[in-house]
Amino acid sequence: MLLEELNLLYKDHEVKNYTRYHKETYCDGELDYFIGMNSATIGTFAEKSYKNIDNGELIKLLQHQIHDYRSIALSIMLRQMKKADSSKQKKLVELYLDNLDYVNNWDLVDISAANILGRYLYSINDFNLLYELSLSTNLWYKRVAIVSTHYLILNNCLEVTLDIVDNLIKDKHDLIHKACGWMLRELGKKNQETLNEYLEVNYQIIPRTMLRYAIEKHPEDIRKRILKGDFLWR
């Protein structure tokens, strides 16, 4: 079993409350726990296990206090989603949503939201859940809502992203500002005029971090003008 293998391999490994990329206190005073697996190692465990792992063990990994184990579980689910038919995808999404409280750090959201939840909602053309999540008080639910739209953007469905950003534009957390800015930037790769119009309309209220992320791909002279609120070049 994968969990037994992981416990044996890492039984003497130092567990930390932080990494270079994760703050020690990550949400509402809660702590996360890391053993420091890199993405390649996580991918290796996921690749060799995704075809045969049973749901019981997958849930144990997904609910584990060790961040790295949860990352493996989500990486397994990503691989299963790509191979699954619509019925199996629905079950995987139900499992994901049942355990959404364990998708509780920025990287866990970012590796899973678009290609699990976003993929499925796009396939059924129903985005109400994303609107509901974006109105939550839970930081990670809100990040799931906006990052899920990346799959939609890649498939030229842009309006949902703008609607979700509308719901989050006054949020106070930098992890929401960054995620929204990231999705706006991705939207701009598909239709820069739509992005520029949105930025002009919302310039007075958009957080600076969100704005900076959104315009990273603009030419430097245009970035400087946008940061000053100058849209006369359009």
Structure commentary:
The chain is an all-alpha fold and 234 residues long. The chain folds into 2 domains: 1-102, no CATH class; 127-234, Alpha Horseshoe (Leucine-rich Repeat Variant), CATH 1.25.10.90. The chain has 13 helices and 2 strands. A two-stranded antiparallel sheet has the order 1-2. It is globular and about 60 Å long. The N and C termini lie far apart (59 Å). The model has no long low-confidence stretch (mean pLDDT 94).
Topology:
Blueprint: H1 2-9, E1 25-27, E2 30-31, H2 39-49, H3 55-62, H4 67-83, H5 86-98, H6 106-124, H7 128-134, H8 139-154, H9 159-168, H10 174-190, H11 192-201, H12 208-214, H13 220-227
Number of domains: 2
Output the number of helix runs. 13
The general outline is globular
In CATH terms, what is the fold-level topology of the largest domain?
Leucine-rich Repeat Variant
Order of helices and strands: HEEHHHHHHHHHHHH
Alpha-carbon distance between the termini? 59 Å
Low-confidence stretches: none
CATH class of the largest domain: Mainly Alpha
Entry keywords:
13 helices, single chain, globular, two-stranded antiparallel sheet, mainly alpha, 234 residues, 2 domains, Leucine-rich Repeat Variant, 2% strand
Would you summarize the structure shown here?
By secondary structure, the chain is mainly alpha-helical.
